[in-house]
Amino acid sequence: MGLLVKDKEIVTPGEDLALGMDYLPSYGTFREGERISAAKLGLVSIDGRVIRIIPLSGKYMPKTGDTIIGKVVDVTINGWRIDINSAYSAMLSMKDATSEFIPRGSDLTRYFNFGDYIVTSIINVTSQNLVDLTMKGPGLRKLGEGRIIHVNTHKVPRIIGKQGSMVTMVKDATGCRITVGQNGVVWIQGDQPESELKAVEAILKIENESHISGLTERIKEFLEKQG
Amino acid sequence: MLVNQMKNERRSHLLKFLEKGLRYDKRKLDEFREITVELGVSKNAEGSARVKLGDTEIIAGIKMSVEKPYPDTPDDGNLMVGAELSPMSSPDFESGPPGTQAVELARVVDRGIRESKAMDTKTLCIEKGERVWTTCIDLVTINADGNLIDAASLAALAALRDTKLPEYDEKEKKLDYKSRTNKKLPLKKTPIAITVYKIGPHYLIDPTAEEEELIDARLTVTTSDGKLCAMQKGENSPLTIEDVDKMVSLAIHKAKELAKRL
Amino acid sequence: MEKRTDGRKLEEMRPITAKTGIVKNADGSAMFQIGDTIAYAAVYGPRELYPKFLQDPARGILRCKYNMMPFSGAGERVRPGPSRRSTEISLVTEKALLPVLNLDEFPNAVIDVFIDLPQTDAGTRCAGICAAAIALADAGITMKELVSAVSVGNVNGRIMVDLTYEEESTEGEVADVPVAFMPKSEQITLLQMDGEITREQLIKALEMGKKACKEIHAIQKATLKEKYVGESDEE
Questions:
Q1: Which contacts of B237-244 are long-range, i.e. CB under 8 A and separated by 24 or more positions?
Q2: For residue B104, what is the domain's CATH number?
Q3: I need a labelling partner for A61 at 20 to 30 A (CA). Which of A154, A167, B250, C162 fits?
Q4: CA of A57, closest CA in chain B: separation in Å?
Q5: Which chain C residues are Cβ-neighbours of A89 within 8 angstroms?
Q6: CA B256 to chain centre
Q7: How confident is the model over A34-43, as pLDDT tens digits?
Q8: Which residues between 179 and 198 in chain C have a beta carbon less than 8 angstroms from any beta carbon of chain B?
Q9: pLDDT digits 0-9 by tens, A116-153
């Protein structure tokens, strides 16, 4: 009876986490009779009686309220289809695209064109995973010249840091403009190629080394180093 | 035209780096990613090699067989090159019969080997007009991250060098794949394909997929001991004679460097 | 008497090695080698499924493609592209993996599993399934448990596990039985047979396969954990 794993242990699908009714299965787990088992590869998280799995890999799953970076892949009669680096593409409709009134029959590519990257927010996800986006909100905009890189979605919180502390540190040290989408798409633009390369390197370093303790210190040191 | 506009924004961003002699992964413009060549990666193949150029990975395997020669070359061994852009290696590749990109890849590799006369095909004749050795090179992408042509050519060459012929019973006219002889393929040359990519006024080699998406034109130059033996221009933008001159000279230079390391 | 041509015991598998993350572009990937058979598996998805008429609004679709590289087989070159054999193996591989997946989470989408074999010596579909199960977990797909597979069989009355090509082609009464288990719940998700075997021999072979699959399962788990060792959620 009781727990069969430790908090923060890595488990694989099917592994038993707890026996008996003392614990409650949450995200990434399932109950079958007496057993609670993992349904995903990830870290066990035990919070009181609640057991869940923190995934370490996998595609971005759209969530209402997330700020993400998307790419315009199609322009339709009443809006834009946006690739959001997920299993599903999303729709940005005319009414959510701008505060400006867009008359019917306008050339929509004047606002957002094929291949444009945008910072956008998810306003709705249906049960069929139809995703609606909006451009109305602070910081939501079309991205200009710059570089796009992709990172593991599950590392995004580490790249952003507590209250944005990590990404702010990278921005301050390199003078680059950086936007990190919850969907693992990152936009970076620096005035100098050298400083932009430094920022990209720092972000990839955070992604790769987030599990080694002392991350903040290491990144700080890396950013202070010349060259 | 509209589609190109955004590509142009991303392109002009990369150009700012190239103007300073920098690339997105900090390499110089004429610098290869880390190259590794591993031989004998597939036991049932008579020869095989795995080549990695950074994150691009390709396996080449050789199967030998004895076939009838082509009527116009009755005493020459046959050569066949096939390429699969495996859907495993990129989200952009789909299952199905080889598309134009795969066919081009196979043909460019084929031409480099054939036209450099890398193999002494006469020694691959068993009985004139009746039976000759056929060398079949198959290329399979494992992970595609740019510059597949150079990686594939290198893998093909390495696999040819790794090849040992199976036992052939002259009387029974039968191949025994289970017993392998010590006989190697009659390789006389070292054809090396170097693709030079042009973006704006810059020439670079071995692009990642991220860079490759933004290039204007490419020219694959296959050389053997500094001599040109095959070429292929690709992508949409035209080249001037001056471009070609510069690209060929860079390719010859890089091929010599690469040949030394083999 | 009890030893086999390569010196193994009847219930002994060939040496196994496995690795995750072998294809950087993929959402999940794995290599699984048993003896001289090597399978690569790469998972892409869930992703949008086109053409649209293939979509299922109620659940996602699993699509497996089994492919032997042209130079991977003993003997002659294998012609590239799908054959009747590879099409059937792709189908049974899908059926072997489906029971552990919950595809309701991804209506209209597809999970693609590509299995490619650079080198083969029997047991290829089983090696492919083992690699695919690791790759699916590596891709973060929701699964009830993993799937493990091995071939068992009868070689002239001797029941054994993980037959080599040489053993499969022995003269006399021979049966090759590829079998996949959900190793935890001990349920069979793949079962094929060709050759000659009695009912009693079959049951004995399946029991042997179940035990072997549990050993494979331990290797699959260890391989997955190895990739993520040291991961934690905090500073």
A1: B237/B198, B239/B198, B243/B198, B243/B203, B243/B217, B243/B219, B244/B219
A2: 3.30.230.70
A3: A167
A4: 17
A5: 48
A6: 16
A7: 999 999 999 9
A8: none
A9: 999 999 999 998 889 999 999 999 999 989 999 999 99
